[in-house]
Design a protein that fits this description.
By secondary structure, the protein is an all-alpha fold. It folds into 2 domains: 235 residues, Up-down Bundle (Growth Hormone, Chain: A); 206 residues, Up-down Bundle (Growth Hormone, Chain: A). It contains 17 helices and 2 strands. Strands 1-2 form a two-stranded parallel ribbon.
């Protein structure tokens, strides 16, 4: 394709709403590229999030790190991820999604490779915290970037499909590690987990454009906007006399985190944070303890491990199906509330059917779909609820609050198990945050009648 003629000066007479043009145009190769790059970042994030879990048994035998210390290493990573989301999100609303996504991906790649030389608990804590910073920062940006290049009719479908890379990366990483660790040692897992992000960062430097909505909202780089619009819609009659704008941009209630609570957004933000915190808490509680609980209920270790895999597969299936429903209904929070209801019912039913294998696996698959699908769906929804100028802040802080739940819940679960709680009592306890998430989603649906409209404008 020939480059558009960028000579001349901007006129204030020809005006074009970028959102309308993106919404009415077919998906272009450029938009598919953005989605594919973001999806691959999600996949390698999923791999790196679970990397320590893949090698934990070997770390105990070869490096001498006890199980309790490995728990602290998990916590250091999740703390870094929470901090990364909360810091990088607001920065991206000031400086752009592209440079900070590339930088965050590079940071967690370097952190993964640095893990190869860790030989003490202290070094693992420091390096995994650094890796978490990069993962959290990247996670806060892939949803806004996907959203801002996708037509309104497909936003949830695109974002959920992209986020399916997270559980796919976790599951495929576990399968790959069963070959890597015996053949090349535990360090090979972190080598793969480091090289892939660094290569991806290099590819994004060459192929990833800045968010066109961000460029327009900032009123800068008109030549870049023109070039991008020509690539999205080659037949669109635009030239340097065209002024690009967004009807949605009218942010007057401050910037950064304070803007999440201004212009009528306070209730939305509180309920999104509650839903995110509670669902992350129940998801990570279950992901951490399902194998142990099923073993304690009388099933074999192989059945318990397979149950954990089925739980992850449920999340993948939900991610690939819920997005389409969220795009079709006026209140996508209702779709997520239904998924959350499935999670609650599944949690409460499992103690009654253990240790029967087939019914238990069906319940765990539904539990993974309900809990995992809700988790990815809330991340997707958070990208739709805020204007462009605070979208990364909104997603980043929602993720950060959710990560706090993911840090607390496995620790609480361990404490309850150590005090003698059985499987039935623990599953009942897990239902409490699931009910909290369900309530927050219903409240969100009530105060946001239509989340498909352009983000809140007061």
């Amino acid at each position: 394709m020939s480059s558009p003629d960028l000579s001349g000066s901007i006129s204030r007479h020809a005006r074009l709403d970028i959102a309308t043009e993106i919404d009415s145009s077919p998906i272009s190769a450029l938009q598919r590229r953005v989605l594919a790059l973001c999806a691959f970042v999600a996949l390698i994030e999923g791999f790196d999030i679970q990397a320590v879990a893949y090698v934990a048994p070997v770390l105990r035998s070869e490096v001498g790190i006890e199980a309790g210390a490995i728990g602290w290493i998990f916590g250091a990573f999740l703390t870094g991820a929470a901090a990364g989301s909360m810091v990088i999100g607001p920065l991206a609303d000031k400086f752009g999604r592209r440079p900070l996504l590339i930088g965050s991906t590079l940071v967690f790649g370097i952190g993964a490779i640095a893990t190869i030389w860790c030989s003490s608990v202290e070094s693992f804590l420091a390096v995994r915290f650094l890796t978490g910073l990069g993962v959290g920062g990247a996670a806060a940006l892939i949803v806004p970037l996907t959203y801002e290049y996708t037509p309104q009719r497909l936003r949830s479908t695109a974002a959920m499909t992209m986020l399916a890379g997270l559980p796919i990366g976790s599951v495929s990483g576990g399968i790959l590690s069963t070959w890597l660790v015996p053949a090349f040692g535990w360090q090979s897992v972190f080598l793969v987990g480091g090289v892939l992000p660094i290569l991806t960062a290099a590819i994004m430097t060459l192929l990833l454009p800045e968010s066109i909505r961000f460029l327009s909202a900032k009123g800068r780089d008109s030549e870049k906007i023109l070039t991008i619009m020509h690539r999205i819609s080659p037949s669109l009659p635009v030239d340097r006399d065209t002024v690009f704008y967004f009807e949605e941009e009218g942010l007057s209630g401050g910037s950064g985190v304070t803007a999440l609570f201004s212009e009528g957004r306070a209730g939305t933000t509180v309920f999104v944070w509650c839903a995110m915190f509670a669902n992350y808490a129940v998801f990570y509680f279950l992901a951490s303890w399902i194998p142990s609980l099923i073993t304690a209920a009388g099933s074999s270790l192989s059945v318990a491990i397979l149950a954990g895999t089925v739980f992850s597969l449920g999340g993948i299936a939900a991610a690939l199906s819920l997005g389409k429903l969220m795009d079709k209904v006026a209140r996508p929070a209702i779709v997520l509330a239904c998924a959350s209801t499935v999670a609650v019912v599944s949690i409460l039913s499992i103690p009654a059917i253990l240790p029967s294998i087939a019914p238990t696996f069906i319940a765990i698959l539904l539990l993974g779909m309900g809990s995992g699908g809700t988790q990815l769906g809330i991340i997707t929804l958070s990208g739709q609820l805020y204007p462009t100028m605070v979208r990364s802040t909104g997603v980043g802080w929602a993720l950060g609050v959710g990560r706090i739940g993911s840090i607390i819940s496995p620790v609480v679960g361990g404490l309850l198990i150590s005090t003698g709680w059985g499987a039935e009592a623990l599953f009942s306890a897990a239902a409490l945050p699931a009910l909290m998430s369900l309530g927050a989603l219903l409240a969100l649906a009530a105060i946001r009648p239509d989340s498909r409209i352009r983000p809140i404008d007061g």
